[in-house]
Amino acid sequence: MKALVKEKAEPGLWLTDVPEPTIGPGDVLIKVLRTGICGTDLHIRAWDGWAQQAITTPLVIGHEFVGEVVETGRDVAEIKPGDRVSGEGHLVCGRCRNCLAGRRHLCRATVGLGVGRDGAFAEYVALPAANVWVHRVPVDLDVAAIFDPFGNAVHTALSFPLVNEDVLITGAGPIGLMAAAVAKHAGARNVVVTDVSDERLDLARKVGADLALNVARTTIADGQRELGLREGFDIGLEMSGQAAAMREMIANMTHGGRIAMLGLPSEEFPVDWSRIVTSMLTVKGIYGREMFETWYAMSVLLENGLDLAPVITGRYDHRDFEAAFADAAAGKGGKVILDWTV
């Protein structure tokens, strides 16, 4: 089968032939229909310091996908050939304290699809049945392909109650955009999104942000004054991983404010801990999705009318992966989709 492979320990990716995956008694074989390009895939393609530490070549990359089940293992009962499915890309051990307690998203032995094992940028992918999410209600294929990052957005946005609250989102990348859509749909009073890309800030307005600020020209404090906020933001969603963004968020929170941080910094940085203490702020780290509570929330949000179409800005044949990756790496648009059906 054809697959997009990190074939060599150097920059680049290769579309090449690899053996079709085999499945065990508890596994599912899936024909891939669409995939989404993630920041992780960009790191692997660039072969940066993180990728060099995390990846063993050769490796089929990719973890955002939608497909159709073509075969199930002997012990799989609830999933059938023909089911349309997405996949939870964090494969957990099932034996540690958190897994046994039902907190699988906190497993210390998590293996990432397309990072620690062959992934979904291929004609077929195999997954344990426990990691397969069946779409029981019809979902647009492009949207179903990005359930993994959509889950990151939902997990972050719904970490704290936000009905009638004022929400600050730093970072208008694809997950920040989806978080803005979720926050507004879920009842936030004001949703403010910051970035330095005017193109992405235009997308933020399309998904429902009340105010989109280019922080290269306008401060968050200016945005507060424009909206008439006197005490600061109630909820902060940090999506950028940038030190300046986190510091500015902390400086503009109300006393007792709550921050969910998904953005992954490339290095350590200092923050104003005195402000965190004296303002009694809560800072919560977010990684991945809660299995599978977040997935239920995603499906229900879409059933209830949440529109993610504006977030998807690039669609490519998988054979045009070079152009697709260049689009994703430019940092000006939303999600980029690869079509594996042609």
From TrEMBL:
<feature type="binding site">
    <location>
        <begin position="262"/>
        <end position="264"/>
    </location>
    <ligand>
        <name>NAD(+)</name>
    </ligand>
</feature>
<feature type="active site" description="Charge relay system">
    <location>
        <position position="40"/>
    </location>
</feature>
<dbReference type="Pfam" id="PF08240">
    <property type="entry name" value="ADH_N"/>
</dbReference>
<keyword id="KW-0520">NAD</keyword>
<feature type="domain" description="Alcohol dehydrogenase-like N-terminal">
    <location>
        <begin position="24"/>
        <end position="133"/>
    </location>
</feature>
<dbReference type="InterPro" id="IPR011032">
    <property type="entry name" value="GroES-like_sf"/>
</dbReference>
<comment type="function">
    <text>Catalyzes the NAD(+)-dependent oxidation of L-threonine to 2-amino-3-ketobutyrate.</text>
</comment>
<feature type="binding site">
    <location>
        <position position="93"/>
    </location>
    <ligand>
        <name>Zn(2+) 2</name>
    </ligand>
</feature>
<feature type="binding site">
    <location>
        <begin position="286"/>
        <end position="287"/>
    </location>
    <ligand>
        <name>NAD(+)</name>
    </ligand>
</feature>
<feature type="binding site">
    <location>
        <position position="64"/>
    </location>
    <ligand>
        <name>Zn(2+) 1</name>
    </ligand>
</feature>
<keyword id="KW-0963">Cytoplasm</keyword>
<comment type="similarity">
    <text>Belongs to the zinc-containing alcohol dehydrogenase family. DOIA dehydrogenase subfamily.</text>
</comment>
<feature type="binding site">
    <location>
        <position position="200"/>
    </location>
    <ligand>
        <name>NAD(+)</name>
    </ligand>
</feature>
<dbReference type="InterPro" id="IPR013149">
    <property type="entry name" value="ADH-like_C"/>
</dbReference>
<keyword id="KW-0560">Oxidoreductase</keyword>
<dbReference type="InterPro" id="IPR002328">
    <property type="entry name" value="ADH_Zn_CS"/>
</dbReference>
<keyword id="KW-0862">Zinc</keyword>
<comment type="pathway">
    <text>Amino-acid degradation; L-threonine degradation via oxydo-reductase pathway; glycine from L-threonine: step 1/2.</text>
</comment>
<dbReference type="InterPro" id="IPR004627">
    <property type="entry name" value="L-Threonine_3-DHase"/>
</dbReference>
<dbReference type="Pfam" id="PF00107">
    <property type="entry name" value="ADH_zinc_N"/>
</dbReference>
<feature type="binding site">
    <location>
        <position position="38"/>
    </location>
    <ligand>
        <name>Zn(2+) 1</name>
    </ligand>
</feature>
<dbReference type="InterPro" id="IPR050129">
    <property type="entry name" value="Zn_alcohol_dh"/>
</dbReference>
<dbReference type="InterPro" id="IPR036291">
    <property type="entry name" value="NAD(P)-bd_dom_sf"/>
</dbReference>
<feature type="binding site">
    <location>
        <position position="195"/>
    </location>
    <ligand>
        <name>NAD(+)</name>
    </ligand>
</feature>
<feature type="binding site">
    <location>
        <position position="175"/>
    </location>
    <ligand>
        <name>NAD(+)</name>
    </ligand>
</feature>
<protein>
    <recommendedName>
        <fullName>L-threonine 3-dehydrogenase</fullName>
        <ecNumber>1.1.1.103</ecNumber>
    </recommendedName>
</protein>
<dbReference type="InterPro" id="IPR013154">
    <property type="entry name" value="ADH-like_N"/>
</dbReference>
<feature type="binding site">
    <location>
        <position position="96"/>
    </location>
    <ligand>
        <name>Zn(2+) 2</name>
    </ligand>
</feature>
<feature type="binding site">
    <location>
        <position position="63"/>
    </location>
    <ligand>
        <name>Zn(2+) 1</name>
    </ligand>
</feature>
<feature type="binding site">
    <location>
        <position position="107"/>
    </location>
    <ligand>
        <name>Zn(2+) 2</name>
    </ligand>
</feature>
<comment type="pathway">
    <text>Metabolic intermediate biosynthesis; 2-deoxystreptamine biosynthesis; 2-deoxystreptamine from D-glucose 6-phosphate: step 3/4.</text>
</comment>
<feature type="binding site">
    <location>
        <position position="99"/>
    </location>
    <ligand>
        <name>Zn(2+) 2</name>
    </ligand>
</feature>
<comment type="function">
    <text>Catalyzes the oxidation of 2-deoxy-scyllo-inosamine (DOIA) with NAD(+) or NADP(+), forming 3-amino-2,3-dideoxy-scyllo-inosose (amino-DOI).</text>
</comment>
<feature type="site" description="Important for catalytic activity for the proton relay mechanism but does not participate directly in the coordination of zinc atom">
    <location>
        <position position="148"/>
    </location>
</feature>
<feature type="active site" description="Charge relay system">
    <location>
        <position position="43"/>
    </location>
</feature>
<keyword id="KW-0479">Metal-binding</keyword>
<dbReference type="GO" id="GO:0008743">
    <property type="term" value="F:L-threonine 3-dehydrogenase activity"/>
</dbReference>
<comment type="subunit">
    <text>Homotetramer.</text>
</comment>
<feature type="domain" description="Alcohol dehydrogenase-like C-terminal">
    <location>
        <begin position="174"/>
        <end position="302"/>
    </location>
</feature>
